[in-house]
Amino acid sequence: MVFAHLTIHHRSKSQKEIYKMRSLKDAEPETTVVVKEITGGMDVKEYLAELGVTEGTEIEMVATEPVHVHRGPIALGTKDHDELIIARGWADKIYVEMGDETTPLIVLEEGDTGTVRSIEGGKDFEGFLSEYGIVEGSELTFLRHVPDCTIVVSSGGAEMRMGEGQASKIFATQDGRSIQLNHLKEGESSTVEKIVGGTHVMGKFEQIGLEEGSAITLLRKEIVAPVSDKGTYIRANVCGQHITIGHGLAEKVLVS
User: Fold this and answer.
1) For the chain, which domains are there?
2) In terms of pTM, does the model score above 0.70?
3) Phi-psi region for residue 191, left (φ > 0), alpha (ψ -120 to 50) or beta?
């Protein structure tokens, strides 16, 4: 009888914990919450991990605001590149100065120009960005939001699919110059020169047989249906870093 009583008590506590969990989008501004679960599959978890959000992360809510939604990768103009594409999660960790204000790169609008004042994410991340020519003091111009599409490539006889953000981490050699995979045209072939990212990124590409020296052909780009560019953003602090998360993504983060 005692054993049965303990079992019922444990189940009741578990149900109470589940009941207390709520979506991040429902968290009140100026409160602190802890991530308990992330739903939506590995792509969602990997993207949020780039922002520093994983299960167990403490999030300090700042504000919930109706704003222009910054979806997907962004294209930048730099001293060395007419158009450089970087993943949205990376842009969230780059702070630029415009006039008297320092703000995350991701919140800039088309045509805005700012000077990099700080890069959050540690020395390894700073090293990744330096391979793009982005360091403190760099001047960056926000050119545009890259259309949301799936890039389909072939390498070693296999067909592979990836988003624009993933493709931006692959540099290929074409006509003696280094370009991002995103800039290959349909039907064009090249050789992978380098892959920018940590062991997780390298491992993910190696699993599909893509590494430095691989021959690669861009087969096609599949455009997905456009979505509204208006929505609501959550602004928050994670480990001292300012991040922004759209409501659609915040719905997949359960907190208490």
Assistant:
1) 23-69+228-256 (2.30.30.90), 74-146 (no CATH), 149-223 (no CATH)
2) no
3) beta
